[in-house]
Amino acid sequence: MIEIAGKNALITGSSRGIGQQIALGLAKLGCNIIVHGRTKQSCTSTLDLLKKYNIATYHVYGELSEKDSVEDIINQVKSLDIDIDILYNNAAIMKDFHEDYWSHSWDEWINTYKVNVIAMYTLCGAFIPSMIERGFGRVINITSRIMHKPELAPYGASKWAVDKLSDDIASKLIDTGVRINYLDPGWIRTDLGGENAEHPVEGVLPGILAPALVDNDGPNGEFFSAIDHNLKL
Ligand SMILES: NC(=O)c1ccc[n+]([C@@H]2O[C@H](COP(=O)([O-])OP(=O)(O)OC[C@H]3O[C@@H](n4cnc5c(N)ncnc54)[C@H](OP(=O)(O)O)[C@@H]3O)[C@@H](O)[C@H]2O)c1
C-alpha cells in the first residue's frame, strides 16, 4: 500500500453521493482534492466538508456530456498548475427505467455513452500521458455489476464499456508507474442508487480507496469491489 499524503486527486462527480465519500476518504489520508460537479454551486457542500482536513482543495465544474465542456473542465484543471496523481472517474448518469426495454431512444443511448464512456476516455487521455512521464499515477474508473436489467440497457452497457476501456488502457501501462483499475461501489443509497439500495453511502469507505493505494507493480486492469474488500487502514 502506498502513501498518498500530498498527492493531488481529481474526482469527477464529487459534489455529492459516492464521489463525495471518495473525496472525504482520500482527504483523510492527506491527499489534496480537486472537487468536480456540474456547477460551481454544487461543489460547495463537499468543499465545506473538506475544511476539517489539513489539505489543499480546489474545484472545477462543468458538464461531461459535451466535448466543449469536457475540454473546459480539463483546461480548468490544467490552469491550477498542479500535477494530477490520482484520477477518479466517478461521475455517471443513469436514465429512466424502461419497463418496455425496447423503448430506449437513440438520444438516451448517446447521452449515456457521452458521459459514462467518452468523457472518461477523454479525461484519461488528458492526464495519463503526463502520469507516465512522471512515473506515477492511479486511475480508477467506476463501473457497475448491474446484471440482467435491459430496462436500464444504455447504463448497463456503458458500464461494461468502462471495464473494457480500462482493461485496454491497462495493457499500455504495464511497465509504467501508472495503474488503472475499475471498481463497483455496490448498490448504494444515493440519488442514482435510490432509497431502496442495500448500503448507506458511507459504506463505500474504505474499500473504494483500495485501487488508489495499490503499489507501482500492483494490480492493473483489474476489478475491485468497494463492499467486498480486505483493505485495512
Ligand atoms: N449508487 C449506486 O447504487 C451505484 C451502483 C453502481 C455504480 N454506481 C456508480 O457510482 C458512480 C457515482 O454514482 P452516485 O450514485 O454517487 O451518483 P449521484 O448521486 O447521482 O451523483 C452523481 C455525481 O455526478 C455528477 N454528474 C451527474 N451528471 C453529470 C454530468 N452530465 N456531467 C458532469 N457531472 C455529472 C453530479 O454532479 P452535480 O451534483 O453537479 O449534479 C454528482 O456529483 C457512478 O459512476 C455510478 O454509475 C453507483
Summarize the SSE layout with pairings.
Blueprint: E1 8-11, H1 17-28, E2 32-37, H2 44-49, E3 57-61, H3 67-78, E4 86-89, H4 106-134, E5 137-142, H5 153-170, E6 178-184, E7 223-225
Parallel strand pairs: 1-2, 1-4, 2-3, 4-5, 5-6, 6-7
This protein binds NADP nicotinamide-adenine-dinucleotide phosphate (NAP).
Gyration radius, rounded: 17 Å
CATH homology superfamily name: NAD(P)-binding Rossmann-like Domain
State the total count of DSSP E strands.
7
Q: Which molecules are bound besides the chains? A: NADP nicotinamide-adenine-dinucleotide phosphate
Features of the shown structure:
233 residues, Rossmann fold, 5 helices, 7 strands, 15% strand, binds NADP nicotinamide-adenine-dinucleotide phosphate
